[in-house]
Amino acid sequence: MKNVLITGAYGFLGRNVAKEFKANGAYVVGIGHGKWYQDEYTKWGIDEWHETTITFEALLNVNQEFDVIVHCGGSGSVGFSHENPYEDFQKSVQSTLSLLEFIRLRNPQCKFIYPSSPAVQGNLGNIPIKESMESVPVSPYGFHKKIAEQLCLSYHNNFNIQVGIIRYFSIYGAGLKKQLLWDACRKIQESDVVVFFGTGKETRDWLNISDAARLLRMFSEHVKGYDVINGGSGRSIEIQKVISDLCSHFNKPVSVKFNGATKEGDPIYFWADITKALSLGWKPEIDVEDGLEGYVKYYKGLTS
User: Fold this and answer.
1) Is 107 a domain residue?
2) pLDDT reported for residue 107
3) Closest C-alpha among 141, 136, 140 to residue 117
4) CATH number of domain containing 244
5) Residue 76 pLDDT > 80, yes or no?
6) pLDDT at 278
7) NAD-dependent epimerase/dehydratase domain location, by residue (predicted)?
8) CB within 8 Å of 248: residues ≥ 6 apart
9) What is the 3-state secondary structure (H, E, C) of the chain?
10) Dist CA 210 CA 283 (whole Å)
11) 129: closest CA among 165, 169, 163?
12) Which of 2, 100, 121, 272 could form a disulfide with 155 if both were Cys (CB 3.0 to 4.6 A apart)?
């Protein structure tokens, strides 16, 4: 049985990754922030929950060796990084360093899986983004993720730590209570006229959380040395189509407007080249259209 540590296991990605590993026979330990009782966290496949900031000392206190550590903890917002760059650095970079140092000193055979972001590469245009393309971040969030990736590479090159980095594009699904889809559902439900940032022509690559968690688990089994893959569907979809699909599932007439304004640090286009991910024997199972319908059902179930 594999022993797996998941940081940030209370969060959207973390808890779904925990459930995926548990379903495949792992013993799962979670660590991070979040008030969670045993009957709640065991539903997500977590055998132990340690509520604490992710530090080297906290990892020592857990006092276990792991086959895989998945670092889902940390910052997850470009906007937050602009408002709180120091705290964003601590969440993204310092926590990553603590985990790598723990592996170096106490658990050298452990694999380290780091969910990162295409924000490390910045604005590359309306093309499928390959993992090897240039890296010029345009936000503190992207810079901090890039620094964390560089730390991972350093620990691999200098200390032979096995590292897998997975750059997730737009993950969504039941349980996500923030970001575009959540905000859009709230606006559509509450008003007949809704306004969004941008032009609507911006694109994103949407990946359902179940596909995202399965990809991470499969990737962890293949990682040898140091590797970077994209986590996406391989489809580029305009924001205005996503909003239109959401509106149709609410079965109400809605006037949708875009204000033309841009959010600082948000690239116009995100589109993943998933050739490397597909080579693992993985492929997305949930189409975006079906996934969006499922998300609206989830949202309505919470608010009806």
Assistant:
1) yes
2) 97
3) 141
4) 3.90.25.10
5) no
6) 98
7) 4-230
8) none
9) CCEEEEECCCCHHHHHHHHHHHHCCCEEEEEECCCCCHHHHHHHCCCEEEECCCCHHHHHHHCCCCCEEEECCCCCCHHHHHHCHHHHHHHHHHHHHHHHHHHHHHCCCCEEEEEECHHHCCCCCCCCECCCCCCCCCCHHHHHHHHHHHHHHHHHHHHCCEEEEEEECEEECCCCCCHHHHHHHHHHHHCCEEEECCCCCCEECEEEHHHHHHHHHHHHHHCCCEEEEEECCCCCEEHHHHHHHHHHHHCCCCEEEECCCCCCCCCCECCECCHHHHCCCCCCCCCHHHHHHHHHHHHHHHHC
10) 11
11) 169
12) 100
Q: Are 255 and 243 in contact (CB under 8 A)?
A: no
Number of domains within the chain = 2
Cα(8)–Cα(101) distance, integer angstroms:
18
Chain centroid, CA 153 distance in Å: 20
143 with 158, same domain: the answer is yes
Could you report the per-residue pLDDT of 20-57, keeping only the tens digit for each? 999 999 999 999 999 999 999 999 999 999 999 999 99
pTM over 0.85: yes
- The 10 Å CB-count burial string (b at 16+, else e) for 20-30 is bbbeeebbbbb
Residue 277 lies in a domain: no
Q: Which residue has the tokens 């039941």?
A: 174
